[in-house]
Amino acid sequence: MMTARGNEEIDMRAYVIHGAGDLRLDEVPERELGPREVRFALAYGGICGSDLHYVAEGRAGNSILRDPMVLGHELSGRVVETGAEVADLAIGTPVAVNPALSCGTCRMCRAGRTNLCFSMRYMGSAAYRPHTEGGFAERPVVDRSQCVVLPDDVDLARAALAEPYSIAAHAVNRAGVAQARVLVTGGGTIGALTAIAALRAGAARVTVADIEAGARERVANLAEVDVLDAADEAAIDALAADPCFDVAIEAAGAAPALNMAMRLVEPGSRIVQVGFLPTAGVDLNRLITREIDLAGSYRFVDEFDSAVAAVLADDRLAAAITGRHAFEDFEAAFASAADKGRHLKVMIGTA
Q: Which of 82, 69, 50, 70 is nearest to 147 (CA)?
């Protein structure tokens, strides 16, 4: 099936996941724009953990792939075409793209919790059927409301970090970290950005725990944090004997990490779970005996615009991008992104 634009039929290349272990660089049709839509030329796209889950398992959490879908939701680019009712974006304008498009009318949206919208369309997500196409394509289409205008001389690779930073900022907001001693479990992209967001939100001290020495080293180079070897049982036991954290944010998505967090926070503390967990292996009895509050944190609400400003204001965040691949080099890009011992954030790019 082709989409006609004038007398011209145009295809573009896109990263299409067909099933577990079946990622392809396919030709897909471009569609005509709606009146409030924008077509942009992808500059950079960050490969997320959910993208890796779709490729490895055909699902991300409870979102199960049932049809082929374009991946990608950490995006930046430049405007190449606008719909008839979009008058405020010039061709060539650089933008960061908010992948979330809520309905605005359901009771969650009316309550201001747009991340929990019952009709959420989130780019590159199989949560609903039909799935919402992602942005790992040469010229994706989004609603005008999803475009955040950037300065002309912007680092578009760093701008693509806005989405994961938004998730980190939302987790920090859910936790309440002002003047707190904060434990972050997991030193991947979300964990590292959560540590940075926590410091900016006024945390007294932040410690990042990870089993990978490389992850601990990278996050220590990005921010003034302490690091903890999550595989050092003696160190964990010593800390558990006298818990010293007021709040924990679990970003590893691993049962041992949550179990460790429950041991290391003060009784009566709060743990925020931001990483998707497996369905087994979590011992929740400590929640009862130590009256720990466990809260979920899902995507973000209104943090995206401020996240764009935050990632562009901190030059050190350029170091969070540890791998860059050309758009057509999709197999190597995903292999790099899956190598957590060597990489923090891997970008695919056309810029």
A: 82
